[in-house]
Amino acid sequence: MREPLVIAVAQPSCVPCDVAVNAATHAATVRSAGARVVVFPELSLTGYELDAPAITVEDPRLTPIVEACAEVGSLALVGAPVPGEAGRSHIAMLAVDGTGATVAYRKVHVDTTEADRFTPGSTPAVLDVDGWRLGLAICRDTGIPGHASDTAAMGMDVYVAATLMSAEERALQDERARRIATDHGVWVAVASFAGSTGGGYARAAGCSSIWTSEGVVVSHAGPETGAIAAATLS
Q1: pLDDT at 200
Q2: Domain-wise residue ranges, the chain
Q3: What is d(CA 125, CA 40) in angstroms, rounded to the nearest whole number?
Q4: Are 75 and 97 in contact (CB under 8 A)?
Q5: Strand 126-129 and strand 100-106: pairing?
Q6: Which CATH number is 5-233's, of 3.30.420.130, 2.60.40.1180, 3.60.110.10, 3.40.50.300?
Q7: What is the dihedral of CA 17, 134, 29, 13, to 10 degrees?
């Protein structure tokens, strides 16, 4: 029988395009979260700066996060642009643990403002952590019902979403989480950017949350930067 899984959703402060500073903040968040899995928002390492250079998984600026994960036994899911083909990039979710970083997922449903630079990912993705199947999503993916359905078809216990929405979209963010939870009978964890993060988002929604498979919110952060919400999944 698998053990309960402690998951945290975080909304750290972000310095636009400063990966080194943001990675240090991510590392401090991992240490303080007390969770096996710590989820960060979309493009959390750069902010929503669509011209920020892509980051490789070998980038030494990720070292503080790797070290923090090794110290506390966590897996961090962090947001970053990563290299693609023909000079284009992907909006991605990196899985960082005590051994290093890998690209866990590439955003499938990029929006029109992102499409000039970013190539959509081709497939959904599920990550196994201690016997728990984590379906991965980035922002607009959560609004496409087929994305959750395709991910659920791979077998998932938790739908993990890294998002960026405006403060005016907080209700929409919760509505999507509740729908996915009840439609597919899975936990939902949403890490949502807070504060100012570039790309015209002077006031992002924050309010990261964790939902049961019955669509009940069990942990909810406020709109402020630096907040963390956590829950034990069993």
Answers
A1: 73
A2: 5-233
A3: 17
A4: yes
A5: unpaired
A6: 3.60.110.10
A7: 40
The CB-side HSE value for 44 (13 A sphere, CA atoms) comes to 37
The residue to which tokens 């309960």 are assigned:
4
- 179 CB burial (10 A radius; 0-12, 13-18, 19+): middle
Burial class (CB in 10 A: 0-12, 13-18, 19+), 171: exposed
Phi and psi, residue 188, nearest 5°: -135, 130
202-221: pLDDT as tens digits: 889 999 999 999 999 999 99
Residue whose structure tokens are 């979260």: 33
When the pLDDT of each residue in the chain is averaged and rounded to a whole number, the result is 96
End-to-end CA distance of the chain: 11
In SS3 terms, the chain reads as CCCCEEEEEECCCCCCCCHHHHHHHHHHHHHHHCCCEEECCCCCCCCCCCCCCCCCCCCHHHHHHHHHHHHHCCEEEEEEEEECCCCCEEEEEEEEECCEEEEEEECCCCCCCCCCCECCCCCCCEEEECCEEEEEEEHHHHHCHHHHHHHHCCCCCEEEEEECCEHHHHHHHHHHHHHHHHHHCCEEEEEECEECCCCCCCCEECCCEEECCCCCEEEECCCCCCCEEEEEEC
Query: Tokens 């509505």 label which residue?
Result: 175
Residue type, 61: R
